[in-house]
Design brief:
Length: 221
Amino acid sequence: MNAVKLSTVALERDTIVRTAIRLLDEVGLEKLTLRRLATELGVQAPALYWHFRNKQELLDEMAEAISVQEAPALRPLAEGESWEEWLAEWLRGQRRVFKSHRDTARLTAGTHPGTATLRTVETILESLLRVGFTRTDAMWGLGTLASFLGGFVLEEQADQERGSIDPALFDEALESLAPYPNVRAVMAETGGPQTDASFEHGLALILSGMRARLEVQPDGR
C-alpha cells in the first residue's frame, strides 16, 4: 500500500514540475507563480505544498529536470579519451538544453543543486582526477565553465526576448557604432557577441587555462 502511495505522489510531483516548465516557456520566470500553476493543474494553491515546501523547492526541481534529466546522460571519461573534448561536448549539450526553454539561465542561477546534479559533478571530478587534476583545480575549472555557460545563455535569451537577433536590428546596431570603429569592425566580422563561434572561442579559452594548470601539477602532467 505504501509503495503504491509513494508512486502516486512521485507521479503527481513530476506532473507539477513538467507543468511548471511548460508555463515557464509560455509566460517566463517572473510570471510563473504558484497560484497560476495551481490554476493550470486544476487545484487550489495550498495543494502544491503537499509536494513542495515552497516555491524555491519547486524551482530547484525544475532546474534539475531541465539541466540533468533532459540532457544526455554524462558518462565517465573513457580511457585515453581527450578530457577537453569530453568536457566541451558536455557543455555544448548543456547549452542546447538551456536554450530549449525560456529563462533557463535565470532559473538555474537562483537554484540549489539536487542529487542528480551532484552526481554529474562527482562524475566530472572523478574523471578529471584520473587525468591529473587536483580536486580544487577540477572544481574551479568546472565552476568557471558553468559560470560561462550561464552568462552566455543569459545574454542569448535576453537578446531573443528583446528581438536583438533580428538581422535588420543588427544592421541598425552596426550603424550606431560608427564612432567606435574597432568595436564596429569586430561586430561586423563576428556577427555579434552571442554566436556559436563566440561560444566555442570562450569555451576554448577556459579549457586552455585548465590545461595550463594541469601541466604544472607536481607529477608533471
